[in-house]
Design brief:
This protein is an alpha+beta fold. It folds into two domains: about 30 residues; about 140 residues, Avidin-like (Lipocalin). It has an eight-stranded antiparallel barrel with strand order 1-2-3-4-5-6-7-8. The radius of gyration is 25 Å and the shape is extended. The chain starts with a helix and ends with a strand. This is Lipocalin-like domain-containing protein. It comes from Cyanobacterium stanieri LEGE 03274.
């Protein structure tokens, strides 16, 4: 009984040190702390890109001068904005990306489309637009061997406010991108 009581007191006194002895090796060896695990992908795509996008099908097929600007980040997140984000006001798209093969990548990003409030006048429009749909783009990217350009195919899906797929709102596109760099 005395031995158990002594051990209990000893464990109480040194509980913090015992906890650290167990936790420190776990924290250090955890793959979440390593750069490789954070990147989850190759560094080849990380950076800023500009792409000319041409829809082959869907409502955007008539647009001939569509461009996307991308920022691919360490850790697999990304942001996309187009030269048409101001018409109507649309926030940037946010998403994720991953490496599929040596020079093959996939990005999936979403944005919210907006529309003016019902019966809005020009004065009302400056007060803000309201959400109307959500767009989901899945892009398969093939990076050229030089690492400075890519070609891609994009599948676009539109969803209404109730998260129902808008069948006639989507489309298929191709993209040709160049990595931004100081010359």
């Amino acid at each position: 009984m005395k031995l158990i009581s002594k051990l209990s007191r000893l464990v109480s006194q040194y509980r913090f040190f015992i906890l650290l002895t167990v936790l420190i090796p776990l924290i250090i060896s955890n793959p979440l702390w390593s750069r490789d695990a954070q990147a989850q992908t190759s560094d080849k795509l990380i950076g800023q890109w500009r792409s000319h996008v041409q829809f082959i099908t869907g409502g955007f097929a008539e647009v001939k001068d569509l461009e996307f600007m991308y920022s691919f980040n360490l850790g697999g997140t990304m942001t996309e904005s187009s030269n048409y984000d101001g018409a109507p006001p649309v926030p940037p798209a946010y998403g994720i990306w991953r490496q599929l093969d040596e020079n093959e990548f996939q990005a999936k990003y979403e944005y919210y489309a907006t529309q003016p409030p019902e019966n809005a006048t020009m004065d009302d429009v400056w007060g803000g637009w309201i959400p109307s749909t959500r767009g989901v783009l899945t892009e398969n990217i093939t990076l050229n061997d030089d690492g400075k350009s890519f070609i891609s195919t994009i599948t676009y899906e539109a969803f209404d406010k109730d998260n129902n797929l808008v069948v006639d709102g989507g489309g298929i596109a191709t993209g040709k991108g160049m990595k931004l760099a100081f010359d």
